[in-house]
């Protein structure tokens, strides 16, 4: 396949200042007429042919300035329309008529039907599946869209911008016209037509303009959209207050559809959402679902400024909108909920998804330099690491200069398609700082490692840190340059307070942050009488791995006393991770795993510390997951040993704390009506962590069954079902709960996704057959991305022992399933195929079986660009 390179970027010879679209909708044959006003970028340049992108299009009619074009004046294929010699004048119009079949569009890109609703997805390159166009983000056009449809089939006709006209066409047909005054790239175009219910509200902006808000959902589901509407209004208020950004159209609409390749899409004024991220009530959604809805509603809304008003020059700049918008939604959630808890959750996500990507064959810079299929670059690196890079800019500049830089960026580039260089320049100019070395975070792949040793000279009252940075090689980048790493830190004294110090390497230490710029730094602190415990990378100030030579007693001390809540959580997590790594080695050698009694004591202390939020305590008490432990071990992974070690640790802690955990579990029970707020969710999560521990002891299945039957919300119900289906597999209690859940929710597809996912994650060798069996369940469908992600996505990426079964049966199912899915939906198949990206860290036998599965896929004739790109890079 073709490789696209950043250095090949060239502005287009032609611009499209205005785009008029007319859709005559019909499931099997929709007629699209695009009337494009085309202008030469340089009026004195002539003669360049005009090449428009297409993808599987059928051309029905073509006119230039109102006249049909001669056959030899153009060439049309499904993938391209070339006008050989466009007219000499600076501006001309091209009318293009194409025909598409929404009902046959199973790839869910372009115009398709979901549950009888016409909808679109154009990012990144879906618009070319609707009409021929300059389908690239630097072509900004003002759109006017006319939609015609049968009123009965589609009483609702929506597009971007503001509604301008609507009326009857006779014969049961009607039309609506929408006009979006803001020039936008084609990837932000959207259309929705169908029969949907609405939740309507309004918002008055800071300058007093009234905006109509609508959330469109399946009829009868309006009561499930209230939380999303509330999150939307809070997002609008927050963006005004924190970034000074006001909404700019008369309407803002959100439509929930059930067949969607990703989470949601920020189309101008008409966001389209996966219904999973809109619909919620306590009976059907978990606290995690509520938090996701809030974050994604905010994320898409924030794109209106970071993405839409200022868009990307080309797809290499994807992080310009995504990393920045993730940073904005993280900050929003931190403000709406608990900042420390949110930060811990972010770091857990980053480590679970971005670190393995950065440390494996699919590693790429936050701003990639090449791609074969852009859809494969909507990654944790672009999104999550991209957000961390923005966070570091704020750490380096301080909050005030950061805001000035953002203001300058908006002021300079509003209405433009910008680059990462433009973005960084705004901060450099606003703060008067050089971000030259810092920019490597965008250009260089790989997770930097920072190694720290320390020494204390009591006589001189000096404490010295020796710090060294290195960046491991990544595909096609063997030699790395030194990074600017802002490392927030504290020196914690025996009373738990940060010690005051004077730093000798004054240039590198600033406001509690060591700025690493060289390979090695020696930082000497004077006035330090006692040997402190070092708290490093506080708040996770840099997305790095740390190797610190530190005594267990220091870590235990920090876990109890560190003044930075993130580092406090980190210390406990490190203690548990180290213990689990040691234990899994013992298990592999057929020895019993030893655990220090200090760990269970620490759990006692954390649970009993009423100065800590419930949610924090829940996070601290949750041992690292199997994949986290595997990542820390890094190579020669045996998932079964890791699983056994983790179970042993849970049981060990639960045994020591049996009475305490039982009492706390009772105390934390529901009282009063359900609320999805952060504190209530924290209480539930702590209680469910305690359930997890207690279920490892005698009577665990009965306890979980009681929890399941007593549950008055989905969070508790799903937590209990997980314990039963995982730890008490095959018991009557587990079977009964699975059946009950299935019966209760069989007609609610989103809830059935939880039922599929819980079973797909069940540890042990039986999961392969279980997953195969579930794929034939009446509630399952190979055509729906949510079903595929719940069952197969969970199994491939979230079931260490089941998927990585020693005989390779999981990998065989992987190859078979991905090839099957690819026939309909290459994008989803490619995403699921990343489930084997860490295959080289497995022990040799599993490694070879995994490789064979990947080779089987790679050698299948006629693979899509999406899938072949992933498997070839994974095998390279
Ligand atoms: N911008 C979209 C993602 C589009 C993915 C295209 N394959 C959603 C978001 O990040 O907000
Ligand atoms: Zn986004």
Automatic annotation (TrEMBL):
<dbReference type="Pfam" id="PF17432">
    <property type="entry name" value="DUF3458_C"/>
</dbReference>
<dbReference type="InterPro" id="IPR042097">
    <property type="entry name" value="Aminopeptidase_N-like_N_sf"/>
</dbReference>
<keyword id="KW-0378">Hydrolase</keyword>
<dbReference type="InterPro" id="IPR037144">
    <property type="entry name" value="Peptidase_M1_pepN_C_sf"/>
</dbReference>
<feature type="domain" description="Peptidase M1 membrane alanine aminopeptidase">
    <location>
        <begin position="227"/>
        <end position="438"/>
    </location>
</feature>
<dbReference type="GO" id="GO:0008237">
    <property type="term" value="F:metallopeptidase activity"/>
</dbReference>
<keyword id="KW-0482">Metalloprotease</keyword>
<protein>
    <recommendedName>
        <fullName>Aminopeptidase N</fullName>
        <ecNumber>3.4.11.2</ecNumber>
    </recommendedName>
</protein>
<feature type="domain" description="Peptidase M1 alanyl aminopeptidase Ig-like fold">
    <location>
        <begin position="446"/>
        <end position="547"/>
    </location>
</feature>
<comment type="function">
    <text>Aminopeptidase N is involved in the degradation of intracellular peptides generated by protein breakdown during normal growth as well as in response to nutrient starvation.</text>
</comment>
<keyword id="KW-0645">Protease</keyword>
<dbReference type="Pfam" id="PF17900">
    <property type="entry name" value="Peptidase_M1_N"/>
</dbReference>
<dbReference type="GO" id="GO:0016285">
    <property type="term" value="F:alanyl aminopeptidase activity"/>
</dbReference>
<feature type="domain" description="Aminopeptidase N-like N-terminal">
    <location>
        <begin position="66"/>
        <end position="188"/>
    </location>
</feature>
<feature type="domain" description="Peptidase M1 alanyl aminopeptidase C-terminal">
    <location>
        <begin position="553"/>
        <end position="876"/>
    </location>
</feature>
<dbReference type="InterPro" id="IPR035414">
    <property type="entry name" value="Peptidase_M1_pepN_Ig-like"/>
</dbReference>
<dbReference type="Pfam" id="PF01433">
    <property type="entry name" value="Peptidase_M1"/>
</dbReference>
<dbReference type="InterPro" id="IPR001930">
    <property type="entry name" value="Peptidase_M1"/>
</dbReference>
<dbReference type="InterPro" id="IPR014782">
    <property type="entry name" value="Peptidase_M1_dom"/>
</dbReference>
<dbReference type="InterPro" id="IPR024601">
    <property type="entry name" value="Peptidase_M1_pepN_C"/>
</dbReference>
<keyword id="KW-0479">Metal-binding</keyword>
<dbReference type="InterPro" id="IPR027268">
    <property type="entry name" value="Peptidase_M4/M1_CTD_sf"/>
</dbReference>
<comment type="similarity">
    <text>Belongs to the peptidase M1 family.</text>
</comment>
<keyword id="KW-0862">Zinc</keyword>
<dbReference type="GO" id="GO:0008270">
    <property type="term" value="F:zinc ion binding"/>
</dbReference>
<dbReference type="GO" id="GO:0006508">
    <property type="term" value="P:proteolysis"/>
</dbReference>
<dbReference type="InterPro" id="IPR038438">
    <property type="entry name" value="PepN_Ig-like_sf"/>
</dbReference>
<dbReference type="InterPro" id="IPR045357">
    <property type="entry name" value="Aminopeptidase_N-like_N"/>
</dbReference>
<keyword id="KW-0031">Aminopeptidase</keyword>
<dbReference type="Pfam" id="PF11940">
    <property type="entry name" value="DUF3458"/>
</dbReference>
<dbReference type="InterPro" id="IPR012779">
    <property type="entry name" value="Peptidase_M1_pepN"/>
</dbReference>
């Amino acid at each position: 396949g073709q490789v696209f390179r950043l250095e090949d970027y060239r502005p287009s010879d032609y611009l499209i200042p205005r785009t008029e679209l007319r859709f005559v909708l019909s499931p099997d044959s929709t007629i699209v007429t695009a009337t494009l006003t085309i202008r030469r970028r340089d009026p004195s340049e002539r003669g360049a042919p005009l090449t428009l992108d297409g993808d599987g299009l059928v051309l029905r009619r073509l006119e230039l300035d109102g006249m049909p074009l001669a056959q030899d004046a153009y060439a049309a294929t499904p993938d391209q329309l070339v006008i050989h010699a466009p007219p000499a004048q600076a501006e001309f119009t091209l009318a293009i008529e194409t025909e598409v079949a929404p009902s046959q569009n199973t790839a869910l890109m372009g115009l398709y039907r979901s549950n009888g609703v016409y909808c679109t997805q154009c990012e990144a390159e879906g618009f070319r599946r609707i009409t021929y166009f300059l389908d690239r983000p630097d072509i900004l056009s003002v759109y006017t869209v006319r939609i015609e449809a049968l009123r009965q089939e589609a009483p609702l006709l929506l597009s971007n911008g503001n509604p301008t006209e609507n009326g009857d066409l006779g014969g049961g047909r009607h039309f609506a016209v929408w006009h979006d005054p803001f020039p936008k790239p084609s990837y932000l175009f959207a259309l929705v037509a169908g029969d949907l219910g609405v939740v309507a509200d309004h918002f008055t902006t800071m300058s007093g303009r009234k905006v109509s808000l609508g959330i469109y959902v399946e009829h009868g589901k309006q009561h499930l959209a209230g939380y999303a509407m509330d999150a939307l209004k809070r997002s609008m208020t927050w963006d005004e207050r924190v970034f000074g950004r006001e909404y700019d159209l008369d309407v803002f609409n959100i439509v929930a559809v059930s067949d969607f390749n990703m989470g949601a899409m920020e189309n101008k004024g008409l966001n389209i959402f996966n219904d999973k991220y809109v619909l919620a009530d306590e009976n059907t959604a978990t606290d995690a679902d509520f938090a996701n809805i809030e974050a994604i509603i905010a994320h898409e809304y924030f794109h209106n400024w970071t993405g839409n008003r200022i868009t990307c020059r080309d797809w290499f700049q994807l992080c310009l909108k995504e990393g920045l918008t993730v940073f904005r939604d993280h900050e929003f959630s931190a403000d709406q909920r608990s900042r420390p808890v949110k930060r811990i959750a972010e770091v857990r996500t980053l480590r679970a998804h971005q670190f393995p990507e950065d440390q494996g064959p699919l590693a790429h810079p936050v701003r990639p330099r090449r791609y074969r299929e852009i859809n494969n670059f909507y990654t944790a690196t672009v999104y999550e690491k991209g957000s961390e890079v923005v966070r570091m800019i704020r750490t380096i500049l301080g909050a005030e200069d950061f805001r000035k830089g953002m203001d300058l960026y908006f002021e300079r580039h509003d209405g433009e398609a910008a680059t990462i260089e433009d973005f960084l320049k705004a901060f450099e100019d606003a703060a008067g700082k050089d971000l030259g070395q810092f920019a490597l975070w965008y250009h260089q792949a790989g997770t930097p490692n920072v190694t720290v040793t320390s020494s204390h000279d009591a006589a001189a009252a000096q404490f010295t840190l020796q710090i060294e940075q290195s960046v491991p090689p990544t595909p096609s980048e063997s030699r790395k340059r030194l990074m600017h790493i802002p490392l927030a830190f504290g020196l914690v004294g025996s009373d738990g307070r940060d010690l005051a110090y004077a730093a000798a390497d004054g240039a590198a230490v600033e406001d509690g942050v060591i700025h690493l710029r060289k390979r090695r730094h020696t930082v000497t602190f004077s006035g330090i009488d006692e040997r402190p415990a070092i708290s490093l990378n506080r708040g996770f100030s840099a997305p790095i791995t740390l190797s610190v030579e530190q005594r267990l007693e220091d870590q235990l001390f920090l876990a109890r006393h560190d003044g930075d809540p993130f580092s406090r959580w980190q210390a406990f997590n490190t203690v548990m991770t180290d213990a689990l790594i040691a234990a899994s080695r013992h298990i592999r050698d057929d020895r019993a795993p030893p655990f220090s009694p200090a760990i269970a004591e620490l759990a006692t202390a954390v649970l009993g510390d009423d100065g800590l939020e419930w949610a924090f305590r829940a996070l601290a008490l949750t041992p690292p997951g199997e994949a986290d432990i595997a990542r820390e071990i890094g190579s020669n992974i045996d998932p079964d040993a890791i699983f056994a070690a983790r179970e042993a640790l849970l049981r060990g802690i639960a045994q020591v704390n049996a009475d305490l955990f039982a009492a706390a579990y009772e105390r934390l029970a529901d009282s009063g009506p359900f609320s999805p707020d952060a504190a209530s969710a924290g209480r539930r999560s702590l209680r469910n962590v305690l359930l997890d521990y207690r279920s490892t002891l005698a009577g665990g299945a009965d306890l979980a069954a009681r929890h399941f039957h007593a549950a008055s919300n989905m969070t508790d119900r799903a937590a209990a079902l997980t314990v039963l289906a995982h730890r008490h597999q095959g018991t009557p209690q587990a079977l009964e709960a699975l059946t009950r859940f299935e019966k209760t929710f069989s007609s609610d597809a989103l809830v059935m996704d939880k039922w599929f996912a819980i079973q797909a994650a069940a540890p042990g060798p039986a999961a392969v057959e279980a997953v195969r069996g579930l794929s034939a369940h009446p509630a399952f469908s190979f055509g729906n991305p949510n079903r595929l992600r719940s069952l197969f996505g969970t199994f491939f990426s979230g079931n260490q022992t089941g998927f990585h079964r020693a005989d390779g049966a999981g990998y065989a199912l992987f190859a078979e399933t991905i090839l099957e899915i690819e026939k309909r939906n290459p994008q989803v198949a490619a995403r699921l195929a990343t489930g084997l990206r860490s295959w080289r860290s497995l022990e040799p036998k599993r490694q070879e079986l995994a490789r064979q599965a990947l080779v089987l896929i790679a050698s299948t004739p006629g693979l899509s660009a999406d899938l072949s790109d992933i498997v070839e890079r994974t095998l390279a």
